[in-house]
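Changelog-adjacent note: as of this version, every example in the card shows the full chain rather than a window. The one below runs 462 residues end to end.
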Amino acid sequence: MHGALSGDPLQHERFRREARSVARLSHPHVVTVIDAGEDEGHPYIVFEYVEGETLKHRIRTLREQGRAMPVVEAVAYAIEVGRALSAAHAQRVIHRDVKPQNVMIDTEGRAKVTDFGIARTLDDGGLTATGRVLGTTDYVSPEQALGEDVGEQSDIYSLGICLYEMLASEVPFKAESQVGVAMKHVRERIPDVQRLRPEVSAALAVVIERATAKEPRNRYLTIDEMIADLEQALAIEVARAGEASGEATTVLRALPKEQAAIAPGHLRRPHRFAALVALTTLAGVALALALTTDVGQQRRGPAPARASGPLTQVVPIAAHDYDPYGTGNKSEHPLETGNVLDSDRQTTWATEQYSSGTLAPKPGVGIYVDAAKPIAARRLDIRTPTPGFLARIYGSDAQLFSGAGSDTFASWGQPLASVTVGPLKHIYLNTHGRAYLHYLVWIFRLPPGQNQAEIAAIRLLR
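Full-length structure tokens:
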């Protein structure tokens, strides 16, 4: 314990509680507490030794080299830090000083969170005085800067700022004093990360925007919600980049099935892909030998038939709004749904306007189209004047479907695709040949900086 604090009984008790709290955490991305005690009245905590560098040092080194951290690597580290915080929050421990300086990158490339020096448990009896600001102001949450009560969402805010810095190579706010920086966290919106890193997807930009909302009610409710969106963003970024390196490869392999399906298979399962390439090569060699030997007839067979023919458009017979989690009439502009089926690109269906810029507390809203009969659609096209929203596509083959306002998702099953929607998006569907009568566009994130999403056209192709 720092000598300047050793004469304060309150700090002694906080230190002991920290030791007990962090000792309960056993997680691969948390620096482990090995022992704790006192030596001649001086409290101490013994941590595992982590050889490597801090995340802050990694960011600074790249900046000095004139480079920025690869997007997929930044997201991977954010996921690992998030998982560490999830373990802490499950034990009702809030870190309260999440920053790159407190994240170690070990020699294997893993992130490990350390220094719970100002952490507190949610039931610690108020050992931290009201009105006292704890934490580093470059990453401090607005409520923390104001000396208000601090909860799990403060860690979420700080992690959002860390992710911004990894991508932008600098913190979002600067001022002549630490108080000035803290007040910017209270009053100013962080800069748009896509202006500094245009290659960042809208899906990832939305995660940062939601995590760093000024009001806690507009942020993620839990760190696990943020992790889920980060996992999806990682898969999207890998799919866009066509490659993954460093720790991103490790994190990618462990993604949940739904998110992992977005990324190319050879990046999710490199060893399996290598084996497949080897087998394919051997098969090619065997085939070549068979064609050039004197065994049997030496003639070239017909070219194999293509697995699928050209796409043909299917004209839906109707479109319906879908707002199962809404209140009141559970509708989203039902009179506009026909606009997605007409040939006029100027007419649109739109969600309601959400002044907060997020759909919360709803998990999403949507619009679905009906085919005349069940079909195995291979592609769904969306045209929108508000690009950047995130959507999943679902299918239902229920003959008697309850329609708009249904309060269950049971009829939809697993998503057929998950995408960031551009001005004209061709979405290839993973139906496995199964025929569906209804196809749902489920919007779960609004476009960055906008309070509604619009769709001008939906087209089905099989």
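Structural remarks: The CA atoms of residues 131 and 247 lie 39 Å apart.
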